[in-house]
Design a protein that fits this description.
The structure is a homodimer of 259-residue chains.
Chain A: H1 9-13, E1 16-24, E2 27-28, H2 31-45, H3 52-65, E3 73-81, E4 98-105, E5 113-117, H4 137-148, E6 153-157, E7 163-166, E8 170-175, E9 178-182, H5 192-204, E10 208-211, H6 215-219, E11 223-228, E12 232-239, E13 242-243, H7 248-257
Parallel strand pairs in A: 5-6, 5-12, 9-10
Antiparallel strand pairs in A: 1-2, 1-3, 3-4, 6-7, 8-9, 8-11, 11-12, 12-13
Chain lengths: 259, 259
């Protein structure tokens, strides 16, 4: 893998997007949904979308080169940046995006997660809150805060006080038999596993609400779980000191989406 | 300049900080203030600060290597990242930061700036809003929006509707003979030129207020100007279609800080 030039706008300004794709037994899981989301993010950022064949080939090569192709579970990261050049904040005309793929082992966390609410708010007043952009520092800091508090992951509220997501996962909860998750305009990432869980709930006949909900709704929930492409569904056992028991519907959804 | 590894956390997550230092006739202007701010930012992000001698030597080398050492005006960018490694959002223990310096020509814009208010809000609910972090994408998009509207720069409000800054500059305005600028907790970057202008105002006996102010205060101002280390003081001639005339106090402050 060649080094990146230090004038890459992903490096200098976070001007780009990424996808983290699960590779299971050498196969890229749900790669079409990831490339769809990447293309949608490019449209929002005003970047040309990548060639899908080239992007997939790059990911397969990263998997092969790191000798993780035969691994039971690996994470393949595809990064697209606005490339090099431009003046300060302004991109060059035309932009020549840069695509980079890397692969790493991805053991699945089996224990339920302990969450704490972060002091750092997710900026629902920016279109980037719904995208998997390279400007991920707030989430890094939220996770860091959570780990310092002895938890595994951070719950991030948005600037209006509504739940948005975890630092590296979407969040769902159960109110009786109703499944609830933050609406995308709350600053939630449009997660590929979020979409799968929503589709699974529809198949199972589970009513679902996408909504703006304050932290008190989560504290009063019957169960809480996290989702992302690598972990699938991960139950939450504790939020800010309040305990949650395992829930059969979370288990059922986990089996449905089985990453 | 060697290439960056694709697992650098500045590249993958925006996990780092930067400084843009003016080099005038081969000398780094105000480099101590820049390195002070970088060290303060490192403390907020939980990163070890760089060695100041090494950082300055790197910047001088970048200036020499790009043959800009003799240029009247160049911009030297110093980037510090959380280095390579870690697992997902979580940094490795210990962190080994990476320092990179680059240099580019920096012509001074002489014409007054036309501003439009951005639809993208600055996230005053994160400590990163006061820092010059690598997660700069919101500002890239705000500038892009401004350029698409035929303006030079974007005014960014925070999530509570108060003025925070321009996309790549701090903002000041005059209310009669009183100089006003957004307080840092509005999500304003702690600009080195902002600090210089504040110090100059004190020397000149100009009263100054750091405050939270809505867009209507700026629209009603007697004059508006932008500041950063590369441009010094740059007057604003238009904000969202409202015109502003050049102002003698802005000119006086520009001469005082003369970058």
């Amino acid at each position: 893998m060649m080094g990146l030039p230090p004038d890459d706008r992903g490096f200098t300004l976070g001007d780009g997007l990424f996808e983290t794709v699960l590779a299971r037994d050498g196969a890229l899981v749900g790669v079409a949904a990831h490339l769809d989301r990447l293309a949608a993010g490019c449209a929002t950022l005003g970047l040309p979308p990548p060639d899908r064949v080239e992007a997939e080939a790059l990911m397969r090569r990263a998997l092969a080169q790191t000798e993780l192709g035969a691994a039971a579970r690996a994470a393949v990261r595809l990064t697209l940046t606005a490339g090099s050049g431009g003046r300060g904040l302004e991109r060059p005309e035309p932009v020549t995006p840069r695509l980079v793929a890397t692969a790493a082992p991805a053991p699945r966390p089996l224990a339920p997660a302990r969450l704490v609410t972060s002091s750092i708010r997710r900026n629902d007043r920016s279109p980037t809150a719904r995208l998997k952009t390279l400007a991920y520092l707030d989430n890094v800091l939220a996770r860091r805060e959570a780990r310092a508090a002895g938890a595994d992951e951070a719950l991030m509220l948005n600037t209006r006080g509504a739940a948005a997501s975890a630092a590296a996962a979407n969040i769902f909860w159960l109110e009786g038999e109703v499944l609830v998750t933050p609406a995308l305009d709350c600053g939630a990432l449009a997660g590929t596993m979020r979409a799968q869980v929503i589709a699974s709930a529809a198949r199972l006949g589970v009513p679902l609400r996408e909504t703006a909900a304050g932290a008190e709704r989560l504290a009063a929930a019957d169960a809480l779980f996290l989702t992302n492409a690598l972990i699938g569904v991960r139950q939450v056992c504790d939020l800010d000191g309040r305990s949650f028991a395992p829930h059969r519907l979370a288990e059922r959804l986990s089996a449905e989406v089985d990453p």
